[in-house]
């Protein structure tokens, strides 16, 4: 059970990093 929870948190963490990278890329493309 602990390993499943840890894996879920890790997946959410990766998703957040990926989302932030896309936002930063979009800001750079817009000139912000």
UniProtKB/TrEMBL annotation:
It comes from the Eukaryota. This is Uncharacterized protein. It comes from Heterorhabditis bacteriophora (Entomopathogenic nematode worm).
């Amino acid at each position: 059970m602990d390993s499943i929870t840890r894996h879920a948190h890790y997946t959410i963490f990766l998703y957040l990093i990926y989302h932030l990278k896309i936002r930063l890329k979009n800001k750079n493309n817009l000139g912000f």
